User: Fold these one by one.
Assistant:
Number 1:
Amino acid sequence: MTNLDGTSWNEGREEIQDAARQLARERYAPKAELWDRERTRFPVEERRYLGSLGLLGITHDAAYGGSGRPVIDALVVVEELAKECRPAAFQVFETNTGPAQVVNQLGTEEQRKRFLPPIISGETTMAVAISEPDAGSAATDMTTRAKLAGGRYTVNGTKRWISNGSEADSYLVYARISDAPGAKGIGAVIVEADRPGVSFGSPERLMGFRGIPSADVIFDDVEVPEENLLVGAGGFRQLFTAFSIERLGNATMSLAIGQAALDRSLRYAQDRSQFGKPLIEFQNIQLTLADMMMQVEGARQLLLRAAHHAGTGLPVPLEVSLAKCTANEMAKRVSDLAMQLHGGNGYTEEYGIERLHRDAHGWAVAGGTPTMQRIRIVSEMLGRSFNQRG
């Protein structure tokens, strides 16, 4: 794949990856354990710093302050940061593969000019709001409404499990735009957090994902201008096709967790001795490490395929579901094997393995569970949908 000037998309990727690896190890690795233990929100000044490095705009056009690179370039940065500090990686994930990318792909030129530059610079953030108290995997059961009258949309409803909830400056809210049943009535509208009627629930105390705030977002007669409509009623499939880019980012977070667990286990097995010899000399340890590497590399190849085919556009949904489901389950298994390989040390905070394992479960739940991805895989294979309501 080449740029318009004939240069390769691969040009500069290794340098980007090396710089991200150095940033992760030198700036964020020393802080990650403390931030996790104290549930510290990722500092705003650090987000701005990532913006100043250009890492929040890798996949966005130069017209908005970005680099116009393919999504795979953002994913290599996400992986390197996530090996050491998931909250830092989340900033790059959210801007390059999250709701800002949906605005980039589906929004109007006016919306791109209004929302993207401050997001890319790190001055503001945008979160996606899909799930509700009674609409998680069954997203089409959502009841949040955005009703048009007099050139303004009035938004009412409650969104749950919102990553960066209460922290983001704006929300990409999936809502019922019309009275059409099911997916036919669903679209999306952008709601700024400082509008009257926007409030937040208590911060969630999650098993993992520490440093990434999560809270209910409540809309009570919130008015936004008609120009904030991103996708009208009937655009649910379009929205979820764009959302598949976020699932690429999600899969990369899981890949990073698996790779980090493998890397730490390889070091530990060579440094730690039992019964008078290094652990690496025991056949059972060798078999465990081989299994871990096979699982990590299997997930990596599925992710690379999906990212390569996406380029600077939208990925193939089937390839994304395969990559996400495989990476999510790999991260849980490999981090668990790492914990077993480390023995009692793996159960302590000191070695960072339990933190990897906690976060692995979080990324498997976020963005569509492995169970729902399996259903998506069969639907995409057969080119049909299935009614899960019985």
Number 2:
Amino acid sequence: MTKFEGMTPRQRIRNTIRFRRVDMIPWVDQIQDEILVRFMSEGLPPHRIANIDWAMANNGLLTNWPVLKGFDPYSYFGCTDLWGCIVPLDLGPIPRFKQRKTSQSAEYEDYVTEVGQRARRLRKGVNDVIWYRMPFFLEFPVSDEKSWEEYKARLDPDDPRRYPKDWEKEGYVQLFEQYEGGPTVLAMDGFYGFGAQLMGIVNFNLSLYKDPELIKDMVSYWEYYTIQSIREAVETLKDRVDLVFWWEDMAEKHGPNISPKLYKEFLLPHYKQVIGFLNRNGIDRVIMDSDGNINPILDLVIEAGITGTLPLEVNSGMDARDLRKRYGEKLFLMGNFDKREIVKGGEPMRREIDSKLEIMKETGGYIAGLDHDVPIDFTLQRFQEYADYLKPKLIVE
């Protein structure tokens, strides 16, 4: 295979998700803010990754005030930031529920989330992290037709607040044409994911049997709401959007939370409508993010129009090598390095990378990375060791 010199991160991603040749395999990992803070406490130089740019000061006319926009650890380590250029839409409830703490004890604190859930979490200790400790949900905002109708009022696709104050078509077209730091991305929630967030997994699944008309109304409205909310951006940017990120956590270790039969009946038609709208506007690459073992429903996922999947959790039986044999170029793949082995460093880390990367390099259509976000037990030293070993192996000869 010919080596291509000087490809940008965006070019590599665009070629990879279309099974075209690249100079090196893209590497994408997600470093959560709390992990980044830990890395900085262990010696990662903040001044090397700080992103300071001009901004409008105090909403006035002074437009050249330097502001810390955030941190970019991705360029520092040599991987690609999946979220460097996203379509800036607000697809959540408007108005938000006011996030607030409602009660607390010596061990717990209860609060209302911006989505409207009531949740309980352990009180944060000095060295604890919030991101890695899932809350226990006490109550969800939708339970029946009445509460769904009330919630639906917060899902008005035509609310002008869904687009940023600086939404100006020509400027965004130029931005999406010129960006080269990684893929340009449109992110959205899927039909199972949105239902489980609003009702809870147990209640949503039970309602598939006990109240199917409610579920049909919810997913039908979500199809309408999604298309109408993204319509102006999609019809403006068209194929300048490289990738649609479709969040759809719908499985656990032993398999999907929804059967193929129910997926086909309740979800598949709506997937096809949304993805058909994207395809008609030149956006033809859609990656579904679901934890767990999604093998039993992958045929239907592909029929729905999904063209890629991540994170391919090893502990749930997902294997990029097997998926490539089964589906060929029907699915591009991201992730699948077993984080439990990578975090050990040394020989376990090297063995895990070597067992998969060379095979996937030969087949193409693969973006390297862990089988989930960077976990909290990674130290800066271990992550740097992982980066230093992986990067030279990504080069395609």
Number 3:
Amino acid sequence: MSTTALPILSTVTPRKREPTPLGSVGVKQKTPRPPYTPQPIDARPYSDEIAQWMQVLRTVPLLELGARADALRRQKVGGDVVSYIVDRNINYTNLCVTDCKFCAFYRRPKDDEAYVLSFEEIGQKIDEAKALGGVQILMQGGHNPYLPLDWYLELLRFIKERHPIHVHGFSASEIEMISKVSKLPIDEIFVQLKQAGLDSMPGAGAEILVDAVRDFIAPRKIDSQKWIEIHEAAHAAGLHTTATMMYGVGEVWEDRLEHILKLRASQTRSLARGKGHYTAFITWSFQPLHTEMEEWDVPLGTGVDYLTTTAVSRLILDNFDNVQVSYVTQGPKMAQIALRFGANDFGSLMIEENVVSAAGIDFIMPEQEICRLIDSAGFTPKRRYQDYTLVDQHPQGCPCCTWRGSLGDQGI
């Protein structure tokens, strides 16, 4: 199978060399920091709860907050198991027209470093991941207007036929771009992607789900309501998704709390429908290097800030089972501590990662080290699949992919 069947791809500049900091839009383009005035609490949705949680943040010591979150973790997931997944991030394109000010990864269409991976390159990456025990690929890329829906469908069929593996792919904003290019509604996009082989959807692109903040850092990106609507459409199609929050972009605590409360409400609606839902929540702090925001002088998240955010997330998101650490941005030691502040998952082995590392952060580590860190923090490490089924409890393969394989001949 060849991507040359789609002539529009010839308009995309192939990758000529490995990405460099000098290729980053943030290095080439400096944007002054715009003013940001947060909304008062009483003008926000969930204003009463935001006020209550602000009082908690002002009055409850950090260690007590962590103890409360740790107790809820034990209640939700039980035992001392900390899970992780062996997977690979495949960034199929870095070409993007959304120009998020916090991103060091993307390249504009005429940039020499812009690329679209071929199906064969993607297949090779999958085979390399599977040889290392990988059970999933995370497919994410820029918002590329040159890729039609057929490209994504053919890619998914190619993967399932030639390199079968769980595909956790395409953020909400990528889905919205596919919908724009194809001129099809979001629910129809999910029907077709699922039939072709999409198994679940990542929670990237949430940043802060407050439009005043999104207008500040990513004015061309989908708004907060659209992000939630797309995830709930994925859930309605029977797909599980994850949810994220990138903080430290100049927002205030009231913005973070509004974000988390919106996620809890969205999960409530999806659980009531009885189909897909959010499987996990992941938060991390903004990394400014090589981005347009590098010189904005926004206060960077501290370790205390990360632990507080993790604990509060666990306590508010009482209808989420799993909270994942971000060792890639916070480092291994802080990730260990977060396991006592409500987190129960160590994330991904991340055989490959290109987005955060473009901002100069690179804490990728081998599986043996992940297991050592989990064990030395007082927990038992266990491999998992995307739906949080443990590998040793389902050794025949990912339950989602086993189900799909048994119905593949019916086109489901």
